[in-house]
Amino acid sequence: MPSYTIASGDSLWKISQDHGVPLDALTAANPQITNPDLIFPGQVLNIPEAQSAPQNRGIPEPAPSRDSASINAIPSPITANPTPAPPIPPRMPQMPQMPPPPMAHSPAPWNNGPSGTGFKTVAYFTNWGIYGRNYQPQDIPANYITHILYSFANIRPTGEVFLTDTYSDLEKHYPNDSWSEPGENAYGCIKQLYLLKKAHRHLKTLLSIGGWTYSSNFAAPASTACGRQTFARSAVHLLADLGFDGIDIDWEYPQNAEQAAHFVLLLEETRRELDRYSAQHLHGKRLLLTIAAPCGPSNYEKLRIADMDPFLDFWNLMCYDFAGSWDSTAGHMANVFPAPGGDGTTTTTTPFNADGAVNAYIRGGVHPSKIIFGMPLYGRAFENTDGPGRAFQGVGEGSWENGVWDYKDLPGEGREVVDGRLLASWCFDPVKRKMVSYDTPEVAGMKVEYIGGRGLGGAMWWELSGDHHVSHERSLVRITGEALGRMGGLDGSENTLVYPVSRFENLRRGFE
User: Which residues lie within the region annotated Disordered (predicted)?
Assistant: First the structure.
């Protein structure tokens, strides 16, 4: 099927007329265009065969809306690589709110094609969440999730990867767990995750290593060949023992060029060890390797992105924590686009933006389909402030730590505000002078449009315990999962259930 690259000033109506194709046929051939009013210069359309009789070109073209005209007037902000999907302009007008969810929710549609097809919905599950938060593996909304990142394992100075909470990971007995099975057996979250995989064959699990708390432990072992080899072998050994489908490395962050080079070598060694294990025990089935990727320029500019990319299955961009208690002014913590001031510079309301990071990784050689767009399931608070870009004093209390609120506890007092230019939202109480920055359902819908428009690989969340139950009308995981499912289906590639060398007898048997 021929293709056409959208130019400035184009509309779907104009393209259909120019190519002699009915508008409905053009729309049907391009399911990635979920909103015909939102197309962007640089996007590539499929053009179905023209009608035998040309359409009447004498019909006047309808005048574009102000919104679509403002989009089409903005040039592409980056130079595309030969393969990546085209970029979205650096600013967008107000986007339409997601339609209200139906009263009865059904699982998102799945794409059961080859591995890597369909959008990915990736979510962190923390092993400490089973305590005060009382968020158990059984609470994971598996109908809307394709990958779970089980967090976090730690690293010894030798490079050995080890579990951080053996009670949560392996020992806690859930209902129906036996107390009298002979031999060495796995219980806790590890067993429950495996049972979820059996019930939902699209659900892949990865052991996430590091995180903010343990990231200082990467540099030393990554600096030597012996340390890297110990890291890779011990990580894969845990994968084989515990029933994971891959490894996620969350190093926050390499501090200089030397550490960035060591990170590349660490990924290479881990990829080699994953492939070796798969060749021996899984008939070569692909095991996953991913990282948590920074969105701050001072961090991603140190990375050797092009050298890292061949070893990674996808990049989980942490498109959040752009503002917080460490700042001097209240701001947006998860905005997609920057806010240009009168001189065209970024204002203090949003010193960072996710779109800039996406562009940087694409320029660095990452195909857009390997970029997973991270979103928060929490909000960051600012007190004694007059709103975004204004000074604040203190962050107040939170759900579990000061200044941080679970999304399910929001909105607070005041009113919710959505900025369609930035793709950012917050609640603000002018009487108490309190602002909380977080994603609303409307902004989640806008971010889905952004993911689809940029050709990105899907969505990621930190972390699951912060969301509403999926039966709630404001559940961000469900809203996003359903929307991505409608847009192109979710990744339905099968997980792995066979772990023949696990030290745990019940896991080797598949918990039969």
Answer: 51-89
